[in-house]
# Entry
Amino acid sequence: MAKDAPPRWDRRMQQRLARGEAAALGELYDRFASLVHSIAHRVLDDDAAADQITREVFGHVWEKPDAYDPRQGSMRSWVAGLTHRQAVQRLRRTGAAALTDGGEGTSEELEQKVRRASAAARADYIVTSMPAPLRAALELAYFQRRDYRQTAADLGVTEDEARRRLRLGLQLLSTANPRHQDGLWSPPGYGQHG
# Structure
């Protein structure tokens, strides 16, 4: 899903990184480090491994800022895609090594684990990327167990609007289900990578 004109911030950030501005890397880290760590942790279920992936992703961005193509999508999607690919590669490597060393399970079970982790990472990314009104409605309905009437009252919107927000939010979340694709996820604009 290519876009005609990338957001101004994304273009400027890429230019600053390409010039080697350390402050740009710091700004990028401040903006996306929690996203990177959460995606990596969701895939790997290991805090230390997620920390390592976070360092690797920002190292890659620093070394290869021209790898980002603004026509392919946002910088956020690109960074999320890098994170996802590196985390999945690490999960496959460690899982395959465990199988080789006589660990329990099969390669098919490892692939199922990769697909589940990928879907969970996609769901997290979708929730953090969706517009705030949709996210707020879903959070009320899911975490606080509110029905659409209570959600409408809590948000100060009509019941029809609350139903619309919940429906749209759930439709977005449904795309995280591996049945909609090959089970592996890449953010919008960056194709299927594993």
In short: The chain has eight helices and no strands. The CA atoms of residues 26 and 58 lie 10 Å apart.
